[in-house]
Specification:
The complex is a heterodimer. By secondary structure, chain A is of the alpha/beta class. Chain A has a 6-stranded mixed β-sheet with strand order 5-6-7-3-8-9, sandwiched between helices. In chain A, strands 2-1-4 form a 3-stranded antiparallel β-sheet, with helices on one face. In chain A, helix 6 links the parallel strand 6 and strand 7. By secondary structure, chain B is mostly helical. Chain B is built from 10 helices and no strands. In chain B, helix 2 crosses helix 10. The longest helix of chain B is centred in the last third of the chain and has 39 residues. The chains are: A alpha/beta, B mainly alpha. Chains A and B meet through helix 3 of A and helix 7 and helix 8 of B.
Chain lengths: 279, 268
């Protein structure tokens, strides 16, 4: 597409946002979430997630982006609206078989278990036997660059390595969708950039979909093919921004004027979402 | 470098206290001899050892009796404590119905219920009364620590298990039990010592049955003013307590060794 980022920003209001041509992988319609305490965390969320896209949920803290991600994961039910998986099969109880991997803000590893045991967990809970899936587990660990640490305990790893284990665990069942809740927020800048690059490498060409929650404009622009900018009180989607730069992206993209322009547009949208007030 | 941060060689941890002990015993020996303290007030260490050696058949039998009650009480407390803790985290109803009574059992001095237990089990079964009393004393730390441990599972890990459709049993075995292990082991260290204390106190209060435990030996020796033998029995009691503690500390190190903060040696 030849449109400049600025032109895109003008064109991307909520209704004009590129509704994918293929049936959406996840269809979120009119979703709201009110907690029993009375807090309205989300209101009127409409979003269609296309297969294979890298979609970031960007917003200030308290805008409900993590809440939305957890609802998509099935951790909690929306108070109104629906989250459908048009292409998923349904189990006997009528729940969609979601095929998701989830990465939390903290690595969330079991400290008493080795890297292997931690990554093996999702398969183990599904009833797989260690012997049958050892290759698959070790493959997932190699995939995040931790081949030599299969027998290590989380305590013995750095923060970035622990997060890699967490990603390997999320990917070991080869899910269709990877949900990531500010996974790199607690890491230092250098580790964060490396993990961003490695995440893009993992994602490239595998056809899975990523939903990535972040509060960093720069991270969202670098990673995403589409950004949903969210505002708070109650949480809503303010604007959808398509980041049309081609993959693979690397350091050159980070230095490009296009990247800067996307960041500027996205920052402006975020400021708009916050109503001009500082969080 | 401050004194606290200097690493201590493992051997020194054993040697230094032993040297201190030897010095104290030597001073004790010399003072008793120098001041001619009568042996029914404070016997010399050498006399205590001689008494231990000459009376060892009866003392060993007593040691065995006390050890058996302690171990049985500990094992029963461990099994029931863990079982009730698991039950109470599975069902809120069980938790709120059990806990007040566990607390009542804990706060009521065991000495005060000893006569009641004795009447219930009958004077011909004093060893059973001792076992029950020691178990009551040892039970509470296991229950409260294990319950706390089972509940202090990381919320995200809990969500992760839910996400992957873990069954109740999988969650208990793969998540809650390992998370509770450090708490349980801490409880076991307290409870192991309390089981011994319970066994001794119960014997003081309830008397001995067919065989006399170490507590009864102490009472008996005091009555006969056989103070060296009393000290010998006391020595065996503390040796027993130390052994229990060391075994449980070793078990803790073995099970938590590589993953838990408490077992980590930090070098700075």
């Amino acid at each position: 597409m030849s449109a400049t980022p600025a032109a895109w920003a003008a064109a991307t209001t909520r209704t004009a946002a590129d509704e994918p041509a293929a049936p959406a992988l996840i269809r979120i319609a009119g979703v709201g979430k009110r907690y029993s305490g009375g807090t309205q965390a989300l209101q009127g969320i409409d979003l269609a997630v296309a297969e294979g896209e890298f979609l970031s949920l960007l917003g200030p803290s308290g805008c409900g982006k993590s809440t939305l991600l957890r609802l998509i994961a099935g951790l909690g039910e929306p108070s109104e609206g629906s989250i459908d998986w048009p292409r998923a099969t349904y189990d006997a109880a009528g729940r969609p078989e979601r095929s998701i991997g989830f990465v939390f803000q903290e690595p969330t590893l079991m400290p008493w278990a080795t890297v292997f045991e931690n990554v093996f967990l999702p398969l183990r809970l599904a009833g797989a036997r260690r012997r049958d899936v050892a290759v698959q587990v070790e493959g997932a660990i190699e995939g995040v660059g931790l081949a030599g640490f299969v027998r290590a305990y989380p305590r013995e790893l750095s923060g970035g390595m622990r997060m890699r284990v967490s990603i390997a665990r999320a990917l070991v069942k080869r899910p269709k969708v990877l949900l990531m809740d500010e996974p790199f927020a607690a890491l230092d800048e250098i580790t964060r950039m490396r993990l961003n690059d490695d995440l893009l490498d993992l994602w490239a060409g595998r056809g899975w979909t990523v939903l990535f929650v972040t509060h960093s404009v720069y991270e969202s622009v670098y990673l995403s093919s589409r950004i949903a900018v969210m505002g708070a009180r109650p949480g809503h989607i303010r604007e959808l921004i398509a980041v049309d730069a081609p993959y693979p992206r690397d350091e050159a993209f980070r230095m490009s004027t296009a990247y800067n322009e996307y960041c500027r547009v996205t920052s402006a949208a975020l400021r708009g979402a916050m109503g001009g007030s500082e969080p | 470098m401050s004194d606290e941060s200097r690493p201590v060689a493992p051997a020194m941890r054993v040697i230094v206290p032993l040297v201190l002990g030897a010095i104290v015993v030597a001073i004790w020996q010399v003072l008793v001899w120098w001041l001619e303290v009568p042996k029914f007030v404070l016997p010399a260490p050498s006399l205590i050892v001689r008494s231990l050696l000459s009376d060892y058949p009866s003392l060993l039998v007593s040691l065995w009796i006390t050890l058996r009650i302690t171990l049985m009480a500990f094992v029963i407390a461990l099994a029931t404590g863990v079982a009730l803790a698991v039950l109470s985290v599975q069902s809120r109803l069980v938790e709120i119905s059990i806990f007040p009574y566990a607390v009542i059992l804990q706060v009521t001095p065991v000495v005060a219920i000893a006569p009641l237990i004795l009447i219930w089990v009958g004077v011909e079964h004093i060893d059973r009364a001792l076992l029950i009393l020691a178990t009551i004393v040892a039970f509470f730390p296991i229950l409260s620590n294990t319950t706390l441990g089972l509940k202090s599972v990381d919320h995200n890990l809990r969500d992760l298990f839910q996400l992957y459709g873990a069954t109740r049993w999988q969650r208990l075995r793969l998540l809650q039990m390992p998370a509770a292990l450090p708490y349980l082991l801490g409880g076991m260290k307290i409870s192991g010592g309390l089981a011994l204390i319970g066994a001794v106190v119960a014997e003081f209060v309830a008397g001995s049955g067919t065989g006399a435990g170490l507590a009864w030996r102490i009472v008996e020796s005091a009555n006969r003013l056989n103070i060296p033998r009393m000290f010998a029995a006391l020595l065996l009691l503390s040796a027993l307590g130390i052994t229990i503690f060391l075994l449980l500390a070793g078990l803790e190190k073995l099970l938590l060794g590589r993953w838990h903060e408490s077992a980590m040696q930090r070098e700075r």
